[in-house]
Amino acid sequence: MRIVLDAERCTGHGRCYALAPEVFDADDDGHCVVRVSGEVPAELTDKARTAVSNCPELALTVVDDA
Amino acid sequence: MSTTARYVHPERRSANPYADEVAADPIPFYDALRDHTPVASMLDLPNTHVISRYEDVKFALQHPEIFSSDLAAVDIGQDRPLLPLQVDPPHHVKYRRVMDPHMSARHFVPLEDEVRGLVGELIDGFAERGTCDVHAELTVPLPCTVFLQLCDLPGDALDQMLEWKDGIIRPQLRHPEAHDPAVAAQIRRRTALAIYEFFGEVIAERRARPGDDLFSRFANGEIDGERMTDEQMLDMGFLFLLGGLDTVTSTLDCSLAFLGRNPERRDELVADPSRIPAAVEELLRVHTPVMQVLRVVRQHHEMHGVRLEPGDTVMVMIGAADTDPDEFGDTAGDVDFDRPVNRHLAFGGGPHRCLGSHLARFELRIALEELHRRLPDYHVPEGAELRYSPGIREIAELPLEFTPRPRRSP
Fold first, then answer.
1. pLDDT tens figures, B224-245
2. pLDDT tens string B150-170
3. Of B40, B4, B32, whose CA–CA distance to B304 is shortest?
4. Please, which of B66, B210, B225, B267 could form a disulfide with B216 given CB 3.0 to 4.6 Å?
5. Do A30 and B358 lie within an 8 Å CB cutoff?
6. CA distance to partner chain B, nearest, from residue A37 (Å)
7. Using one digit for the tens of pLDDT, what is the confidence trace for B48-95?
């Protein structure tokens, strides 16, 4: 699975990097940065999905390539 | 007719968000709004609309070109728009770029010990007594003291700051005659002038002798390639005073009132403090301390068959959105620290999302951690009647009882 960020929608709620700091980080303005490039490691997929589904702006999407 | 008839009138398409019982127990009001009249007038006033469903509230917050947050939305005696709240995109982002880096989650990490020490000191003030008014003794002084520290202002300015924020937000608290709206407007105006004067002097001083405080940092900010003006800094300071103090107080009040009356939920946090961040989000959602925000319509828009016209006032009922079963399921009204999906809008949403949200979360988490660690059996005494203020849900007096504990060793 991969994560796609729509940076236009992100307004910096910060739920993603609070819930899954291994997968997401904040830039200087507190907006989302996806730390993992490409496939999310298997041990982090559950955490990543929880974080994605908690974005109030729906700025994050999970893409399953399988 | 049910009790909801006192505050929601579907046949007249009218709602009264200021009814006495609403602030204390808003969920039945929210349910009635969403179910029966998703676009209601406010107190039958023409050209006003109360919107309440999650999708509608989120749409309004995400579309400031239709639902503007500019000066016309809220008049509290200010000379100019509060920055950045009362400036819409595209100019809005220029201010956020200056301010956001100093208000990000990362920015507060180094302050953890200092704020924990401050909370500890406040708890020391009542720990041995076995009883307290946690509103007056913790939830009011905490955010105000943090604000003073961030701005490098002396601690003895505390009472002055509290008087000013109450003078703007709830003038009737210290001035009973302010139940007359004209008197309230005079008090707000007088208070606003005093705030401008005070922060004007602070800004001049920080320009002359910059430090590491928020004003000194903002002083170096650039808007359109120009250094931030004194007026722009004043307009940020004004908003900080209003936004930074009352909201954390009311969130802690609502949270502690709930936990202090639901010992099994309190015990969950005592047993496992790592659940406190999730609890903060869930308590923000269900109790949404800032019940609503105001917007002004800028473009014709239709919602549920009601035409919204330019110039109309819209009350965006965030608390109703945050308890909407269409978004949060059948248990929307229940506090569940394990709720897997919680896209609450207690900090708003869209471009005007609360600038201070990360500071608020930081203060709320530390306050709850320390209180549950040190006074694990705190509770609201049986029979206590809690008075919630409407709009921003502070509790005038919030008594807690607990087993007396020693102060921290020096």
1. 888 899 999 999 989 988 888 8
2. 999 999 999 999 999 999 998
3. B40
4. B210
5. yes
6. 22
7. 999 999 999 999 999 999 999 998 778 888 999 999 999 999 999 999
Name the β-bridge partners of B42.
B15
Torsion angle of the four alpha carbons B147, B152, B154, B159, in this order, in degrees rounded to the nearest 10:
-20
Cα–Cα separations (whole angstroms), residue A13 to A7, A19, B270, B342: 12, 12, 27, 12
Report whether pLDDT(B1) > 60: no
- State whether A50 and B353 contact (CB < 8 Å): no
User: Over the stretch B8-50, which tens digit does the pLDDT of each residue have?
Assistant: 998 999 999 988 789 999 999 999 999 999 999 999 999 999 9
A18 CB neighbours in chain B (<8 A) are: 105, 277
Residue A2's DSSP bridge partners are: A63
Mutate which: A29, A52, A60, vs B, most B CBs within 10 A: A29
Section B111-116 average pLDDT = 97
Cis before B90 (ω within 30): yes
B contacts of A12 (beta carbons < 8 Å):
100, 104, 353
The residue behind tokens 């007359």 is B180
Confidence check: pLDDT of B199 > 60 = yes
Tell if the CB–CB gap between B347 and A13 is shorter than 8 Å: yes
Q: Give the strand pairing for A2-5 and B293-297.
A: unpaired
Cα(B163)–Cα(B165) distance, integer angstroms: 6
Q: Which structure tokens are listed for B187?
A: 């008090």
- Residue whose C-alpha is closest to residue B96's, from B214, B220, B236: B236
Q: Residue B281 CB: number of other CB atoms within 10 A?
A: 21
Query: Measured between CB atoms, does B277 come within 8 Å of chain A?
Result: yes
A53 with B340: Cβ contact below 8 A: yes
CB B320 within 8 A of CB B33: yes
Cross-chain CB nearest to A54 (options B105, B341, B347):
B341
Using a cut of 0.90, tell me whether the model's pTM lies above it: yes
State how far the Cα of B347 lies from the Cα of B352, in Å rounded to an integer: 9
> CB of B381 within 8 A of CB of B256?
no
Chain position carrying tokens 């405080």: B213
ipTM over 0.90: yes
Interface contact A61, partner B, CB < 8 A: no
The answer to whether B81 touches B70, Cβ cutoff 8 Å, is yes
pLDDT at B83: 92
Which residues in chain A have their CB less than 8 angstroms from residue B101's CB?
A: 28-30
How would you classify the pairing of strands B313-316 and B293-297?
Answer: antiparallel
Q: Distance between CA B352 and CA B360 in Å, rounded?
A: 16
Rounded to whole angstroms, the Cα distance separating B121 from B169 reads: 28
